[in-house]
Design a protein that fits this description.
single chain; alpha/beta; 6-stranded mixed sheet; 3-stranded mixed sheet; 15 helices
Length: 388
C-alpha cells in the first residue's frame, strides 16, 4: 500500500508539472486540491474540496488522459458544483456539470479525456444551471441508467465517500462559506497568474463559467420579488435599499406601483415555465396590494391587457408567430401617464427585435434557460429563469 501511495504521488506530481507547462491557470487551481488515492472507487471523484482517485485506474491512462481526469475533478470542485446543486436531482445535475467541465477541458486542445466522458457541443456553452433545465425538456442521455457516470470517469463515490457532485446539504453554513472562500482564493490567484503569463487571457470557457458562478446563487424568484418590492425612489436612483415586507407596506402608505408584464408567446416558451412564472407574479400581487398589474401576451403583436387574479384561472395564451418586443413597449409608453411609478417585466427567450429607443420605465428581462446571452440585452436588468 505504501509503495502504491508513493507511485501515486509520482503520477500526481508529474501531472501537475505538465499542467503547469500547458496551463498555469489550471495548474494554480490544482495546487488548492488535495489528491487522495483510494480503492473505494473505480475511477475518481470529489467531495467539493478533496480529489479521490483509484491508483490503478489513473495509472492505466495515458499521461494526457491523466491530466484530463484530474483537471475534470478539480474543476468540479473549483466551480462549486457541489454547492450549486442545491436540491436539484443529483443524476441530472451530475450530467449537466460533466457537460460543462468536459467542454472546458476539450476546448483547450491540449488535454485528453478518458473514454466514457460525456461531451455535448450543443450544450456545453451554457451554465450548469441552464443545461440542467434543458435536460429536463430533451435529455440525450439515459436518466435511469447511470453507466455514463459510474462506468466512466467522474463517477459517484461508493459508500463512505461523498459523490462527485454530492449532497452537501448536511454542511453547516460556516463550512459552506469556508469552501466558497477556499476556491474563490484559488480562482483569484489563478486569474492573476493567467494575466501575467498569457497576455491576460483566461482559458477558453472559463470566463463564461466564472460569470455563471457569480450568478449561481441567484434564484429568479428572489430576484423578481426584490425587483418588484423596491421603493419608488429605488427606480429613480436615489435609494438603493431593499425594504422588508412589513416596513415597505407601511412606508408606501397607499402609493401604487404599476407592473406591466409581457409574456413571449412566440412558440418557444414552455407551458410549465409559463405557469410557474405567472403563478409567482400572482403571489407577489396578492402579498402587496399596492401593486397593480397589466398582463400582455406578445409575439410580433400584442394581446391584452389581462387581469391577474389569484382566485381566477390564467387567461389562455395568444400568439405563436414571430417575436418583436417593440409592440409591448409602445403600448406601455401609450398607457403610462408619466406620473405613477411603473416597472416592466418581460418573460422571453430574448430572440426578437428590440426597440431603438430606450423605454422610460425600468425593465426586468426574465430569460428562459435556452435564451439569448444575458449580456446581449441592450437595456434593462436580466435574470435567467432557473429552478432550484
Amino acid at each position: 500500500m505504501k509503495q502504491t501511495k508513493i507511485s501515486s504521488q509520482k503520477v500526481i506530481s508529474a501531472s501537475l508539472l505538465r499542467l503547469r507547462m500547458k496551463s498555469p491557470f489550471f495548474a494554480t487551481i490544482a495546487l488548492f486540491a488535495h489528491f487522495i488515492p483510494t480503492q473505494g472507487i473505480g475511477t475518481a471523484g470529489t467531495n467539493g474540496k478533496d480529489i479521490y482517485f483509484n491508483p490503478e485506474f489513473l495509472s492505466s491512462l495515458s499521461p494526457s488522459q491523466q491530466d484530463g481526469l484530474l483537471l475534470h475533478e478539480v474543476l468540479h470542485a473549483a466551480l462549486l458544483h457541489c454547492l450549486r446543486r442545491g436540491v436539484r436531482d443529483s443524476s441530472r445535475w451530475n450530467i449537466a456539470a460533466d457537460i460543462v467541465v468536459n467542454g472546458i477541458i476539450s476546448q483547450q486542445g491540449c488535454f485528453a479525456l478518458p473514454e466514457g466522458g460525456i461531451r455535448d457541443k450543443k450544450l456545453e456553452n451554457h451554465s450548469v444551471e441552464e443545461i440542467y433545465e434543458l435536460l429536463e425538456d430533451e435529455c440525450p442521455y439515459n436518466m435511469v441508467n447511470l453507466d455514463l457516470l459510474e462506468g466512466g470517469f467522474g463517477e459517484t463515490l461508493d459508500e463512505g465517500f461523498e459523490s462527485t457532485l454530492g449532497n452537501v446539504g448536511s454542511l453547516s453554513e460556516a463550512k459552506k462559506a469556508e469552501l466558497e472562500s477556499h476556491w474563490h482564493n484559488a480562482m483569484q490567484q489563478a486569474i492573476v497568474i493567467a494575466r501575467t503569463t498569457n497576455q491576460g487571457k483566461l482559458p477558453a470557457g472559463i470566463e463564461r463559467e466564472l460569470g455563471s458562478l457569480d450568478r449561481a446563487q441567484l434564484d429568479w424568484r428572489s430576484y423578481l420579488w426584490r425587483y418588484l418590492v423596491k421603493t419608488p425612489t429605488d427606480y429613480s436612483g436615489f435609494d438603493r435599499r431593499f425594504i422588508g415586507r412589513g416596513l415597505y407596506l407601511e412606508t408606501l402608505q397607499g402609493e401604487s406601483v404599476k407592473v406591466y408584464v409581457a409574456v413571449d408567446t412566440s412558440g418557444s416558451i414552455n407551458n410549465q415555465r409559463l405557469k410557474m412564472f405567472l403563478s409567482e407574479v400572482q403571489g407577489i400581487l396578492s402579498s402587496y396590494p399596492h401593486l397593480e398589474c397589466e398582463l400582455y401576451y406578445a409575439d410580433a403583436a400584442i394581446y391584452g391587457p389581462y387581469e391577474l387574479d389569484p382566485d381566477r384561472d390564467l387567461p389562455s395564451p395568444k400568439g405563436g408567430g414571430g417575436t418583436s418586443f417593440i409592440p409591448f413597449f409602445s403600448r406601455v409608453a401609450e398607457n403610462w401617464d408619466g406620473m405613477a411609478t411603473g416597472v416592466c417585466v418581460y418573460f422571453t427567450d430574448g430572440y426578437g427585435s428590440f426597440p431603438k429607443n430606450l423605454p422610460q420605465l425600468p425593465v426586468l428581462w426574465v430569460v428562459t434557460p435556452n435564451g439569448l446571452d444575458l449580456a446581449q440585452f441592450p437595456f434593462g436588468e436580466t435574470v435567467r429563469l432557473l429552478s432550484v
